[in-house]
Each structure stands twice: as C-alpha cells, then as structure tokens.
Design brief:
The chain is of the alpha/beta class. The protein has one domain: Phosphatidylinositol (PI) phosphodiesterase (TIM Barrel), CATH 3.20.20. It is about 35% helix and about 20% strand. Strands 1, 2, 3, 6, 7, 8, 9, 10 and 11 form a nine-stranded mixed beta sheet that branches. The protein has a two-stranded antiparallel sheet with strand order 4-5. α2 runs parallel beside α4 and α7 packs parallel to α8. It is globular. The model has no long low-confidence stretch (mean pLDDT about 100).
Amino acid sequence: MPTLTELHQWTKPVLTAHRGASFDDAENTLAAFDRAVKAGAHFIEFDLRTSADGVPVVLHDATIDRTSNGTGKPSEHTLAELKKLNFSYWHHGERHQEPLYEHEEIPTFEDVLKKFRGKACMNIQCYADLAGLREICRLYLDYGMQEQGYLTIKKDETFELVRKYSKEIEICLAPGWDERAKPENLQKCASFGCRFVQPVNSSVTPETFALCKKLGLRANVFFSDDPDQAAELFKMGAGGVMTNKVPLLASRFL
C-alpha cells in the first residue's frame, strides 16, 4: 500500500472510494470498504459522528434514518443500540425496502482501523463533537495513521483544535463547496501545511490544478462516477478523483 507521501507524489491517477464502494454496496460499511480495497482504491473515504456513549462511528448523515432501520441522531443511541440495527438499506443510489445484507452493523472508527489500516489510505471526514474529535485524534495516533490517512476538516477553528492536540495529524482543510477551489483558499491550505485538497468538480479549471501543483497540493476532486468525465479531470491536471463507483473507474484507470 502506498503511503500518503508516496500518493502525494504519485504520477498516476489516485482513486478515492467515496463512502467505500458506495454505489455497488451499502455505503459507509465494512462491506463497502472491503469491496473498494479489493477493486484497488488508493483511499477509502468515510464520515465520523459520535454515539451517545462517545464512540466515533461511521455515518455521513446527521441521522441514521436513510441508511438503517432506525431513526434519530447517532448521539441519541449508545453504540450497543446502534450495533443492533442494520445499515445496509442504501445502495445503488437509493434506499431499498429490504436490506442488502441480513445484518450489517454500523462500523466504529476503530473497526475500520483494525480491518483496513495498511490496506488503503483513509480520508476521514470529521463531523463529531469536541469530545468525539479528541477520541478520533487519539485513535488516529494510537494506530499510527500519520502516513496512512488524514482528517478532513471544514472549519479553521476545528483545524486549530486538531493542531493543538497533535502536530503529527495530517489534515485536509475542506470548507464550503464554493470556496475550495478559490486561489485564496488553496493558498491558505498550503500555508497551513496541508498536502491534500478536495475541490469540487463543478468549480475546477486547469488553472486550479496548475496552482495546486505550484503550491505542492495534491487535488483529489469531489467527485466523478463517469470514467469519461474523470479522464477529462485528469487531463486538466487533477491528481485524483473521489467516486461512488470505484470498481468502474478502477477498471479504466488502474
């Protein structure tokens, strides 16, 4: 598995599996991450929120309603309660009446680290509260993730909190969609010491990627499920793309 430093300097397209192989499988589950890794994804991307008992769990939405047979915020349920639910209702771009698997648990951050550390790098989107963020940072360091993953942070204040916790934690600063590709934001990312950025495909130009290269930033574009569109992004200078359809893009680019 290439390290972050190696992927930062990679001369070929880098593929990030958005919520795992989230089109073909149940998003943000161990099954989706396993499918993505087997397809050859360089990164698995996932989102972290916090359970009622303070455990970082993998979930994108503010509630569990869309992807599981439960309701409410993850912070309203203990980990034990969440683990009883089935999180395989959303796949192939929609919610289904029946789950994809008889039982697919919500993963904890530690579940993902135990199973996939050393198999793919990780793009870790943080939506947790302050206590949850501290626990995410602790686990990141305990598992020696410095060259194997980065925390994706939206706000400067959160960035500073992580930096105060440890300067060893790799961070990608990703503010609002309209802001990410602006020259002033890219320059700020470089000044903050970021190596990876995540501009949105609707706002990038060849000049965006030229500036990223000048600043020493690897641009992994959010997102593309179309191999032809991805090819155009790579031609423009993108370092990589995030995709829900990593097996499809891997068959073209890897």
